[in-house]
Design brief:
Elements (H helix, E strand, L loop, with lengths): L8 H10 L3 H8 L2 E4 L2 E2 H5 L6 E5 L4 E8 L5 E9 L3 E8 L10 E9 L6 E6 L4 E8 L8 E10 L6
Parallel strand pairs: 1-4, 2-4
Antiparallel strand pairs: 3-10, 4-9, 5-8, 5-10, 6-7, 6-9
Amino acid sequence: STRTGDTTTEDADDLSLVVQDAEIYLLKSGEITLTVPFSLDEVSLFGEAPRELFIKSSCYSIIPITVPEAGHTISWLFSSEPKSISFGVVHREANNGPLEQSKVLIPLTRCNSHKETIQGQLKVRNPGTYTLIFDNSFSRFISKKVQYHLTVKKPIICD
Protein backbone atom coordinates (compact mmCIF):
# COMPACT_ATOMS: atom_id res chain seq x y z
CA SER A 1 0.00 0.00 0.00
CA THR A 2 1.24 3.52 -0.73
CA ARG A 3 0.81 6.36 1.71
CA THR A 4 0.74 9.97 0.58
CA GLY A 5 1.21 13.16 2.55
CA ASP A 6 2.99 11.36 5.37
CA THR A 7 6.69 11.90 5.91
CA THR A 8 8.64 9.77 8.29
CA THR A 9 11.11 11.42 10.66
CA GLU A 10 13.99 10.01 8.60
CA ASP A 11 12.76 11.93 5.55
CA ALA A 12 12.48 15.12 7.59
CA ASP A 13 16.10 14.74 8.74
CA ASP A 14 17.26 14.38 5.14
CA LEU A 15 15.43 17.57 4.20
CA SER A 16 17.16 19.61 6.90
CA LEU A 17 20.53 18.77 5.37
CA VAL A 18 19.44 20.19 2.04
CA VAL A 19 17.71 23.31 3.36
CA GLN A 20 20.37 25.63 4.68
CA ASP A 21 20.03 29.06 6.18
CA ALA A 22 20.88 31.82 3.71
CA GLU A 23 23.31 33.20 6.29
CA ILE A 24 25.25 29.94 6.55
CA TYR A 25 25.25 29.54 2.77
CA LEU A 26 26.65 33.06 2.41
CA LEU A 27 29.41 32.41 4.95
CA LYS A 28 30.35 29.16 3.20
CA SER A 29 30.17 30.16 -0.44
CA GLY A 30 29.95 33.96 -0.65
CA GLU A 31 32.92 36.19 -1.37
CA ILE A 32 34.29 37.92 1.71
CA THR A 33 35.86 41.39 1.73
CA LEU A 34 36.97 41.72 5.36
CA THR A 35 36.95 39.89 8.67
CA VAL A 36 37.46 42.13 11.71
CA PRO A 37 37.57 39.89 14.81
CA PHE A 38 37.11 41.22 18.35
CA SER A 39 37.32 39.67 21.78
CA LEU A 40 34.81 40.81 24.40
CA ASP A 41 37.61 42.77 26.13
CA GLU A 42 38.46 44.56 22.89
CA VAL A 43 34.81 45.56 22.46
CA SER A 44 34.75 46.94 26.01
CA LEU A 45 37.76 49.13 25.07
CA PHE A 46 36.16 50.24 21.80
CA GLY A 47 36.00 53.94 22.74
CA GLU A 48 33.59 56.57 21.47
CA ALA A 49 34.69 56.85 17.85
CA PRO A 50 32.99 54.70 15.22
CA ARG A 51 35.08 52.38 13.05
CA GLU A 52 34.82 51.82 9.34
CA LEU A 53 34.18 48.60 7.46
CA PHE A 54 34.44 48.26 3.70
CA ILE A 55 32.30 45.84 1.71
CA LYS A 56 32.96 45.37 -1.99
CA SER A 57 30.07 44.93 -4.41
CA SER A 58 28.74 41.33 -4.51
CA CYS A 59 30.63 40.55 -1.27
CA TYR A 60 30.16 40.57 2.50
CA SER A 61 32.22 41.47 5.56
CA ILE A 62 31.99 40.06 9.08
CA ILE A 63 32.77 41.07 12.64
CA PRO A 64 33.20 37.93 14.78
CA ILE A 65 33.06 38.64 18.53
CA THR A 66 34.41 35.91 20.81
CA VAL A 67 32.49 35.69 24.09
CA PRO A 68 33.83 33.42 26.87
CA GLU A 69 30.70 33.39 29.06
CA ALA A 70 26.98 34.09 29.02
CA GLY A 71 25.29 37.13 30.54
CA HIS A 72 26.82 40.06 28.65
CA THR A 73 24.87 42.26 26.25
CA ILE A 74 26.46 43.20 22.93
CA SER A 75 25.12 46.37 21.30
CA TRP A 76 25.78 47.84 17.89
CA LEU A 77 25.09 50.96 15.87
CA PHE A 78 25.80 51.28 12.17
CA SER A 79 25.12 53.32 9.08
CA SER A 80 26.11 52.67 5.47
CA GLU A 81 26.89 54.71 2.40
CA PRO A 82 26.07 55.27 -0.36
CA LYS A 83 23.13 52.82 -0.15
CA SER A 84 21.55 50.07 1.98
CA ILE A 85 23.24 46.99 3.42
CA SER A 86 21.92 43.65 4.71
CA PHE A 87 22.69 42.79 8.32
CA GLY A 88 22.42 39.60 10.34
CA VAL A 89 23.93 37.80 13.32
CA VAL A 90 24.90 34.14 13.70
CA HIS A 91 26.28 32.28 16.72
CA ARG A 92 28.64 29.33 16.80
CA GLU A 93 29.40 27.69 20.16
CA ALA A 94 32.60 25.93 19.11
CA ASN A 95 34.94 28.46 17.51
CA ASN A 96 36.42 25.77 15.27
CA GLY A 97 33.16 23.86 14.77
CA PRO A 98 31.63 23.53 11.30
CA LEU A 99 29.73 26.54 9.95
CA GLU A 100 26.67 24.30 9.60
CA GLN A 101 26.42 24.28 13.39
CA SER A 102 25.99 28.05 13.46
CA LYS A 103 22.63 29.27 14.70
CA VAL A 104 21.00 32.25 13.02
CA LEU A 105 20.00 34.73 15.73
CA ILE A 106 19.08 37.64 13.47
CA PRO A 107 18.27 36.66 9.87
CA LEU A 108 19.88 38.77 7.14
CA THR A 109 17.67 41.82 6.70
CA ARG A 110 18.08 44.67 4.24
CA CYS A 111 18.49 47.89 6.25
CA ASN A 112 17.96 51.47 5.11
CA SER A 113 21.15 52.28 6.98
CA HIS A 114 22.05 54.94 4.41
CA LYS A 115 19.03 56.94 5.62
CA GLU A 116 19.11 56.22 9.37
CA THR A 117 21.41 54.74 11.99
CA ILE A 118 20.52 51.13 12.76
CA GLN A 119 20.92 49.96 16.33
CA GLY A 120 20.40 46.69 18.09
CA GLN A 121 21.53 44.50 20.91
CA LEU A 122 21.86 40.88 21.81
CA LYS A 123 21.89 39.19 25.18
CA VAL A 124 24.63 36.55 25.22
CA ARG A 125 22.96 33.28 26.26
CA ASN A 126 25.84 30.95 25.38
CA PRO A 127 29.59 31.39 25.06
CA GLY A 128 31.10 31.19 21.59
CA THR A 129 31.48 33.46 18.59
CA TYR A 130 28.77 35.96 17.68
CA THR A 131 29.30 37.01 14.06
CA LEU A 132 27.84 40.27 12.77
CA ILE A 133 27.36 39.96 9.01
CA PHE A 134 27.27 42.98 6.71
CA ASP A 135 26.10 41.60 3.38
CA ASN A 136 26.41 43.47 0.10
CA SER A 137 26.09 40.42 -2.16
CA PHE A 138 22.84 41.80 -3.63
CA SER A 139 24.68 44.84 -5.05
CA ARG A 140 26.45 44.01 -8.31
CA PHE A 141 28.27 47.31 -8.83
CA ILE A 142 28.22 49.47 -5.71
CA SER A 143 30.68 48.95 -2.86
CA LYS A 144 29.56 50.10 0.59
CA LYS A 145 31.23 51.75 3.53
CA VAL A 146 29.80 50.97 6.97
CA GLN A 147 30.45 53.15 10.03
CA TYR A 148 29.90 51.01 13.12
CA HIS A 149 30.21 51.21 16.88
CA LEU A 150 30.12 48.31 19.36
CA THR A 151 29.57 48.25 23.12
CA VAL A 152 29.31 45.51 25.71
CA LYS A 153 27.52 45.57 29.07
CA LYS A 154 28.46 43.20 31.84
CA PRO A 155 25.66 41.39 33.64
CA ILE A 156 24.42 43.13 36.77
CA ILE A 157 24.83 40.83 39.75
CA CYS A 158 22.78 41.62 42.83
CA ASP A 159 23.77 40.08 46.16
